[in-house]
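I am still learning, so can you show me any protein sequence you like together with the matching structure tokens, please?
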Amino acid sequence: MFVAVVCDPGSEDSRSALYALLPQYGFEKVQRACYESTQIDERRLSSLKREIDKVTDYYDVIRIYQYPLEGSFALTTLKNNKWRRIVVRPPKS
């Protein structure tokens, strides 16, 4: 599964913690605030989300892009300390 994590931290502490955490899960930095991995599985991604919860606060925004997820594209966003997920499925023919 391909996973990209885009970070918009609200503070320097959050930024440092996030940028230190993501490589521990096998993510590589590809742009200033974007990390990617093709090796992470669903179980480790769930663990990463719990770790992200511990190091972020109300002002941080994290977006996680996953493909394929059961044949669909998923966008998960952490904003205002709440996770939201949007799943985009291919059109039925």
Q: What stands out?
A: Residues 42-55 form the longest helix (14 residues). The mean pLDDT is 95.
